[in-house]
Design goal:
alpha+beta, 9-stranded mixed beta sheet, two-stranded antiparallel sheet, 3 helices, 16% helix
Length: 158
C-alpha cells in the first residue's frame, strides 16, 4: 500500500472536531450482516472532511466487537481507518515490534505500517479503558474528538 497519510496528517485528522448528526442519541440499531451486527454513521469534520463511524458486534461472541473511526479519502471511495477499538476476542501481533497479546486493544494508523504494506491501522496497544462495545464507543468519541449536538449525551446506546 502506498503511504496515504503521514503520522502528522493522521494526528491532525484524529484531533479534528467531528460533528455527530442530529438525533444521534436515539438508540442505534445494529443490523445483521454475515455473523455480526453493524451500523455506520456519517460524520462531517469542521472543515467539511467526511468521516465514518463504524460499529460491529458479533452475534456469537460478545467480546468480538469493533468501534472504528475512518476518514473518506478525497476523490476516492476508499476509507482510511484512523482508530479501531477492538474487543478481547482474538490474539493481536504488532509485526514490527514483535509484540503479541490477547486483550482489549486500540488500533491506531501509522505511516510505518503503511510503508511495509500492512493495513494502515495494524499497530495496536492493550487497553483497560473499556470492556464492551458501548465503552469502546465512548472512548472513541473522546479520543476521536466527536462532538455531540447541544444537550445530547455521549452514550449512543440505551
Amino acid at each position: 500500500m502506498i503511504v496515504i497519510f503521514s503520522d502528522d496528517e493522521i494526528d491532525v485528522l484524529v484531533k479534528k472536531r467531528k460533528l455527530l448528526p442530529q438525533g444521534w442519541k436515539t438508540p442505534i440499531r445494529l443490523t445483521p450482516k454475515q455473523g455480526h451486527m453493524q451500523r455506520h454513521l456519517e460524520l462531517t469534520g469542521i472543515d467539511s472532511d467526511k468521516f465514518r463511524l463504524i460499529l460491529r458486534q458479533s452475534t456469537i461472541n460478545q467480546l468480538d466487537f469493533s468501534a472504528i473511526l475512518a476518514v473518506k479519502v478525497p476523490q476516492s471511495t476508499q476509507l482510511f481507518r484512523l482508530l479501531r477499538y477492538n474487543g478481547r476476542s482474538h490474539e493481536h501481533t504488532n509485526s514490527i515490534e514483535g509484540e503479541t497479546f490477547y486483550d482489549y486493544h486500540i488500533h491506531t494508523s501509522t505511516a510505518r505500517y503503511q510503508e511495509i504494506g500492512a493495513r494502515e491501522d495494524a499497530y495496536a496497544k492493550v487497553t483497560d479503558r473499556y470492556s464492551d462495545l458501548y465503552g469502546a464507543l465512548e472512548c472513541l468519541c473522546i479520543d476521536g474528538n466527536l462532538d455531540t449536538p447541544p444537550d445530547d449525551q455521549i452514550r449512543l446506546f440505551e
